User: Fold this.
Amino acid sequence: MPQITLYGLPTCDTCKKAKKALGSAGHDVTFRDIRAEPLTEAERAEFISEFGDKIINKSSTTWRGLSDWMRESEADSQLENHPALMKRPVIRAGQTLLLGWDQAVQDALA
Assistant:
């Protein structure tokens, strides 16, 4: 099984569920708190390249609190200034990146 890195927030219920389920399935999971250890420029570029605008959680309270100027800025700037805007979790399993914790992601990691 490949090493799994789960990028998210420790208070995020979806991240907690994903981490618990992956651990229970026998995966070696490293959790990366994106507030405590923000994404690097290269990581932001990689995530945006892989997921496009889907990487931004536009239904979050953080998004709703942004100024119009920030909402219209590039995703890289949004993630750099507001890490909690990232849709969570982002899961790196080997060379594969997955977004969210829906059934398709769970099946891909089974």
In short: The chain has one domain: 4-109. The longest strand covers residues 4-8. The CA atoms of residues 10 and 79 lie 17 Å apart. The helical segments are 13-24, 41-51, 61-64, 68-71, 75-81, 103-109.
